[in-house]
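As a warm-up, study this chain.
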Amino acid sequence: MDKKIKYTLLAALGAAAAAVPVKATLFKPEKVEVPPMEDEKVDLNRFRKNLSDAIKFKTIADKEAANTDWTVFDAFHDFLKERYPLMHEKLELTVIARGSLVFRWKGTRSDLDPIALLSHQDVVPISEGTLDDWKHDPFEGVDDGEFIWGRGALDMKNHLIGVLESVETLLSEGFVPERDVYILLGHNEEVMCATSENGATCICNYLKEKGVHLDAIIDEGGAILPVEVKGVINKHLAGIGVAEKGYADVEVAVTAKGGHSSQAPNHTAIGHLADVIKDIENHQFKAKMSPMMRELFDKIGRNCTYPARLVTCNLKLLEPALTKAMSFIPPAASMLRTTFGITMASGSPQANVLPQRASVTVNFRMFPGQTVDDVLEHLHKVIKNKKVEINLLPGWKNPSAVSPTDTRSFKVIEKICHSMDDKAVVAPYLVMGGTDACHYQAVCENIYRYSPFLVSTSLLLTTHGTNERIPVSVMEDAVKFFKRYIRLASAE
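Now compare it with the structure written out below.
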């Protein structure tokens, strides 16, 4: 190497290294000056009682509407009417698709686009064989003073009852919104109904027919998570889901002659299918850092202590290495690419019969920007056995659009979070699962997924699992958030 070039490079590297401490010192979060907000009245005892009682209703939907126990949903609707009389008296109520509820709170300004708060009434069933592992009966709603236990305590009767508590209290205080406020309660979110019978889809079609365009939607999908690493960071991450992944189940199958197992060939249909599985699993989708992930890492990085900021201030430089490292960690990889898992398999109906057809089901979660067509194209490309059958199964949906973070409605959420918690870090992120919110894209561009409950990661993992429960200590602030959100987001 030419000496001049060598010394120039060394000088540049030296200057860059010397500049890092200065850069790290300046790499801090933007100052957020939020004037204190008036305190909000919350009837915590009523919230606790109503959530506990709401859990007692086994509102479990079925993919086939005819198999749903509608008497439970009818009883739940009667329960809501009894516990929230002002809401039922003063708001217009429309029942959609047999079990979904649309409440319209009429505002004073018909020229302004309304806002909507979403929840779903249904919960998932208890996994077979796990009932005895529960500390309390999952449908008793036990309140032991520290937690409220039961199915739906975190997903999402806590959110639903919290929203209704906020509306009922605001009504009792005489509050009248400027914009119309819609409370939209779907009934079958948990069964992933991407069909005409999906409650959220039916509500969206109803709003569209009435010419309603929503200014903003807030639904489940995010939460407040403690981020604590000793000496590095001690914050509360308020993750606002601005997009969600798509969903698709694809059957991949091979056929063979079959026959008696006493005259088996070297490779049965399952043997050939094993090569197909290998082809699929050895060809993962490419990982990339999206703008929302860059913003998430940037905000977390700026909130680290000074020594750690020596690294986090160079995230752009470290992005290729970080992306590669994350791609080897399943939870992290899911935030960077389309992921898949081979979840089901079938072959011969009997041990001594050679399978004539063997298949696996591959569950895909598509990253925003990719579609079901991209998934099918990928499979056709990577599978060497071109005689394989590839069948898209019913119930798929493409990823949602990515909602902007520079909107009035996003800033309202951000403002409230900072006003309520000086440890809050508000950042956008990608929702891995599915929500009702994605079905409303025809009537709204500003869709945000956020449930204002501070819960640990370990507790959050009880969602859809055993011993689902919510800390009583986080419930009051959730209602305060919803009340403030309605006040601010419904204003001009």
